[in-house]
Amino acid sequence: MHQEIDYARLGLRIKEARQDKGLTQDNLAEMVSCNTSHISNIENNHTKVSLNVLLAIANALNTSIDFLLSDQYGNSALALDNAILKALQGCDDPKKQKILKIIEIL
Q1: Ranges of H-type helices in 1-106
Q2: Domain ranges, residue 82
């Protein structure tokens, strides 16, 4: 089965991840070594993002390509699990214990 990437959804996901990091399009473009207009075109579905640029964007946003595409394939839970694990890596043990308690409550 051949499935097409929904570049509009991908662009929105990139925009949300960029905004969550408090970055402007200018900031991200500089980190990715491209023009601000290219980031805008990707986010607004005026152009398809290349795999190389997508990888650079994921690295700049400290996320993964699978997380950016996770709402477009069947195993989205794995991408979310990986994103949670990556977020936990920067936490010290007391913070991890608090997070675990929150998870258990949920």
Answers
A1: 7-20, 25-32, 36-43, 51-60, 65-69, 76-89, 93-105
A2: 7-105
Kindly state the average pLDDT of the residues 65-69.
87
pTM listed for this prediction: 0.71
Query: Cβ distance 27 to 40 under 8 Å?
Result: no
Instruction: Give the three-class secondary structure for 85.
Output: helix
Say if CB 67 and CB 79 are below 8 A apart.
Answer: yes
**Residue 61 clears pLDDT 80, i.e. is over it:** yes
d(CA 32, CA 94): 34
Smallest CA-to-CA distance from 62 within 15, 8, 17, 10 is with 17
Domain count, the chain: 1
